[in-house]
Design a protein that fits this description.
Layout: H1 2-23, H2 29-54, H3 57-60, H4 63-86, H5 92-103, H6 107-119, H7 125-149, H8 156-168, H9 171-185, H10 191-202, H11 204-216, H12 225-250, H13 255-265, H14 271-280, H15 284-308
């Protein structure tokens, strides 16, 4: 178990370095924002574009893998929403935002580096398959339910327009979409272009992890301890447990796919969960604190899930 902790720890040490440098005034808030803009709008879309454009879709893009992961996502979202409403007495809009925190695992900034650290670069195929539809799936679920329970819209057409606008403005989705276009059409890419994209992609994860630490410094945990603990249990324990059970006993996916599904499911809520809460102006403190505390706890919980995996 201690060996597994040392596999996971370097990823979180980079996050911690970003946190400490901003806390100590060695790196500014403006610099952190610039790093996150670079990674989320350019470097990570480049990484996802190259990964999806060269991914063996027949081998990695299997419905059994996606069902193993996304069944847990939906159950966590449903329990998070209903628990926030009926156990903690939050308004419906707050409850949906809290459910979204349980839904949106940090599949890219944490999931990919943890998988690579634990199992090597060749293990990332199933993770990329999950990531390729992750933002689209989560935003579709979250926006649809939020628009339904709020007074903003009762029109299905307006809901679809809102979802589509969120998708097409998302740089990660643009990178994934272009990757699928190249993969499915066999469009040849000039070597000089792929070399340039690869240079950008190689910077994505370490820079993003450092920037994530700086962003988390802003999210000081305040109050709502029971709700945050509830979110962490659903995100860090229930979601990967469902992915493990579905993948191993129901879908009977391969060991490589099981590792991708469980490790990705075991990651803390992503920063996008705070962005979603901020978009609607609800449960922002809970979302921010859950991202911070969940990321810290993932050091231990991810080691536990790695211990259980074949």
């Amino acid at each position: 178990m201690l060996d597994l902790l040392f596999i996971v720890l370097p990823v979180f040490l980079v996050v911690g370095a970003g946190y400490v440098t901003v806390w100590g005034g060695l790196f500014s808030d403006e610099g952190t924002d610039a790093l996150m803009v670079f990674t989320q709008k350019f470097a990570i879309p480049s990484l996802l574009f190259r990964a999806i454009s060269t991914l063996d879709l027949q081998q990695n893009f299997e419905w059994a893998l996606l069902l193993s992961f996304y069944t847990g996502s939906l159950i966590s979202f449903t329990l998070g929403t209903l628990g926030a409403r009926h156990v903690f007495g939050r308004p419906w809009t707050d409850s949906v935002a809290i459910g979204f925190v349980c839904l949106f695992a940090n599949s890219v900034l944490l999931g990919l580096p943890v998988m690579e650290s634990a199992f090597g670069p060749g293990s990332l195929g199933p993770s990329y398959a999950i990531v390729s539809v992750h933002a689209a799936f989560c935003y579709f679920v979250g926006i649809t339910v939020m628009e339904t329970v709020s007074a903003r819209s009762r029109s299905p057409l307006r809901v679809l327009v809102t979802v589509a606008r969120a998708m097409f403005r998302n740089s990660l989705m643009i990178g994934v979409g272009l990757g699928f276009v190249v993969n499915l059409t066999g469009l040849p890419m000039p070597e000089v272009a792929t070399d340039a994209i690869d240079l950008m992609a190689r910077s994505a994860l370490p820079v993003a992890l450092f920037g994530l630490g700086g962003v988390l410094f802003r999210y000081r945990p305040e109050g709502d301890a029971k709700v945050i603990a509830f979110i962490c249990i659903l995100s860090l324990m229930l979601h990967p447990a469902i992915a493990y059970g579905m993948g191993r006993y129901v879908m009977e996916i391969s060991d490589a796919q099981l590792r991708g599904a469980v490790v990705t499911a075991a990651m803390a809520p992503g920063v996008n969960s705070y962005i979603f809460a901020n978009m609607y102006g609800v449960a922002r403190r809970v979302a921010a604190s859950a991202v911070l505390i969940g990321t810290a706890l993932t050091v231990l919980t991810a080691s536990f899930w790695l211990y259980l995996l074949p």
